# Entry
Amino acid sequence: MTVPRSPVDLLRSLPVGTRVTVRWALPDDDASGKRFTDSIGTILDSSFAPSVNPGAGDGKESGPSGAGTGLPSPAERLPVETLVLQTRAGEVSIPWTVIRLAKPVPPPPPRRAPRVRRS
# Structure
């Protein structure tokens, strides 16, 4: 058995449905001022999502997808490979290029019953 060399290799080797924690880099201009964030969830998919080519989307596109809408034409979209996790807050798409650390984690513990107040 080969040991994955990077977090991306590890994540790509895990089957859909595996629960993982992923540390990934935030953009430099993120409002929180933080450099990284963590997401914990179940792997749903790795896929290609449309990303806008820098400089595209200036509203001057021609054809049905542009025509002043500010949307890039299909030719101006670049595929960006992403990891999709189902977290408690919803689906999170993380570009593979920003993933720094990852590991599989056990299932969450069962939720506790609400406390009963005694008067």
Remarks:
- The beta strands are 19-25, 36-52, 77-87, 90-95, 99-104.
